[in-house]
Amino acid sequence: MNPTGTQTDAAAGTAPTPREAALRAEREAHKLEKRLCHQVGQAIIDYHMIEEGDKVMVCVSGGKDSYGLLDILLKLQARAPIHFDLVAVNLDQKQPGFPDHILPDYLKKLGVPYHIETQDTYSIVKRVVPEGKTMCSLCSRLRRGILYRVADELGVTKIALGHHRDDMLQTFFLNMFFGGKLKAMPAKLVSDDGDHMIIRPLAYVAETDLERWAQQQAYPIIPCSLCGSQENLQRKQIGNMLREWEKQYPGRTETMLTALQNVVPSHLMDPRQHDFRGLKTTGVASVDGDKAFDAEELPLPARAPMPLAAQPGARKIAIELSPS
Ligand code: SF4
C-alpha cells in the first residue's frame, strides 16, 4: 500500500506510476550517496588519509571515477569535523579531440578551486612508443611526474587518485598471475620520488556504484581512449574474471577486499615477512587449538569490507607486519 491507501505497483503486479518510479529512483540515489560517503569516510579514517589542515589535490581526468571522487570529497569536506582544502587538477595531455572546455566549465560551475595543466605528452608518447604497442605505461609515467611537480607548485599535502576497489583487486590478480607477487594497489603510499603522499579514498567503493552514481549525476564524461591506445588486455581479462565471479558468487569481491586487509604472514611463504628460520616452539598451547593439521573453517562470505580497526586480529596483524 502507498501512503494514500491504494495498492502499489508491486502488490498489484502492475508497472509503477511515473511518480512511484521517481520516488523509487530518488530513494535509490539517496541510498547510493549514503553508501559512497560512508565507504569513502571509512577508508579515510582507516588509513588516516586526510588530517586537519591538509590541502588535497584531487586528480580529475574526466572519467567517472575521478568525478565521483571529487564529488564525494566535497560532500565530506562540508560535514567533516576537521578543516581541509581541496583543489582539482586536470592534466590536458593534448590528445587529439580532447574537449578542453568540458572540465574547466564543470569545475567552475561546481565552485571548487582548480588548476588545468597543459602538457603535450601525447606527442612524446606517439614518438617514443612503436606503432601498435600500448602507450599507457609511458603516458602514466609522464603524467605522474607532471602531477608531482604541480603538487609542489600548488603546495598540496596529499594527492588523491580515483582508483576504486575493483582497480585494487585487478592489480592484485595481475601481480599474482603475471608478476609472481602478492601485491595490490595501496590505499595510501609515499610516491616513488619519496616526496608526496598518495591516497585512494575510493578504496572501498565498487566500480558498479561509481557507474551508477556517474549516471545519476550526469557527469560530462571524457573518454581516456582519445589517444587511440589499446586498453591493457590482461587487465581487461582480469576485470571480466572478477565480474563473472561476482555474478556467480555475489559478495565474493567484497570478501577478496577484506582478505587484502587480513594478511596472515605466518601462513604464507615469504621469509622476509615472517621469521620461519627462527621459529621456536613456545610450549604454550594455542587457545584456538591445533591449527597445523586442521582444515580451515571458513566463514560465510563477508558482505561489506570491515573497517580495519574492527577486524578480529587487526592489532595482532599490525604487530606482525611491523619491523621488530
Ligand atoms: S588510454 Fe591514452 S591517455 Fe589514457 S593512459 Fe593510455 S595512453 Fe594515456
Describe this structure in words.
- By secondary structure, the protein is an alpha/beta fold.
- It has a domain of about 210 residues: Rossmann fold, CATH 3.40.50.
- About 45% of the residues lie in helices and about 10% in strands.
- The chain is built from 11 helices and 6 strands.
- It has a 6-stranded mixed beta sheet with strand order 3-2-1-4-6-5, with helices on both faces.
- Strand 2, helix 4 and strand 3 form a beta-alpha-beta unit.
- It is globular and about 70 Å long.
- The N and C termini lie far apart (about 65 Å).
- The structure holds iron/sulfur cluster.
- Iron/sulfur cluster (SF4) binds next to helix 6.
- Iron/sulfur cluster binds next to helix 6.
List the helices and strands and how they pair.
Elements lengths: L8 H4 L5 H29 L8 E5 L4 H16 L5 E8 L9 H9 L3 E5 L2 H8 L7 H19 L3 E3 L4 H15 L8 E3 L6 E3 L7 H11 L15 H16 L3 H9 L53 H8 L3
Helix pairs in contact: 2-3, 2-8, 3-8, 7-9
Bound molecules: iron/sulfur cluster (SF4).
